[in-house]
Amino acid sequence: MLYCTTESPIGELLLAGDGRALQLLHMQQGPRPTRVDPGWRRSDVPFARVRAQLDEYFGGRRRDFDLALKPAGSAFELAVWRALGEIPYGETVSYGELATRLGRPDGARAVGAANARNPIAVIVPCHRVIGADGSLTGYGGGLERKRLLLDLEAGVLALPV
After folding, report:
1. Dihedral in degrees, nearest 10, Cα atoms 34, 36, 41, 44
2. In Å, what is the CA distance from 100 to each residue of 88, 105, 125, 128?
3. Which domains are assigned to the chain?
4. Could you count the other beta carbons within 10 Å of the beta carbon of residue 15?
5. In the beta sheet, which residues pair with residue 24?
6. Where are the alpha helices (DSSP H) in the chain?
7. Is 4 a catalytic residue?
8. DSSP label at 127?
9. Which of 12, 37, 60, 62 places its Cα 20 to 30 Å from the Cα of 155?
10. How many CB atoms lie under 10 A from the CB of residue 10?
11. What is the pLDDT along the chain (161 residues), one digit of tens a residue?
12. CA gap 65, 63 in Å, rounded
């Protein structure tokens, strides 16, 4: 596994992958930072494209990412994460609505659990999922980062990059 870190308007991000696909994007200054495995090797070069696209996103110049992703998870988690990628930039859906889209109308909690295990934050937009009442709920990077990302996508916030 290769990795690097990069600064962003939401704090330090840990990027990791096999050199061909991104497998992890984690907010290190969130409530639960990811520890770099001693067997991982630091290398900035494989992540140049990821970093450039993140800079464009945070600068308001990118709405969709064009990157090879390789998240590891169960079949259900992978289905949830694919569905997250289908939520348009600047829009939100509830956990229940996402469960219904996946053919599991009673599966809001299961969707929430899969959403919480999303290994590729920001790019796989788990921040676009909200409570049924429109409230911001559960976000691994902390609710203040979720609000910041939603405000950025709504066009009410400009971030320095």
Report:
1. 40
2. 17, 4, 18, 16
3. 2-58 (3.30.160), 75-154 (1.10.10.10)
4. 22
5. 16
6. 48-58, 75-85, 95-101, 108-116, 143-154
7. no
8. G
9. 12
10. 24
11. 999 999 999 999 999 999 999 999 999 987 778 899 999 999 999 999 999 999 999 999 999 999 999 999 999 999 999 999 999 999 999 999 999 999 999 999 999 999 999 999 999 999 999 988 888 887 777 788 889 999 999 987 666 55
12. 7
Tokens of 26: 């984690």
How many whole angstroms separate alpha carbon 75 and alpha carbon 61? 33
Length of the chain: 161
Catalytic residue among 14, 114, 124, 126: 126
Six-digit token pair at 48?
A: 């140049």
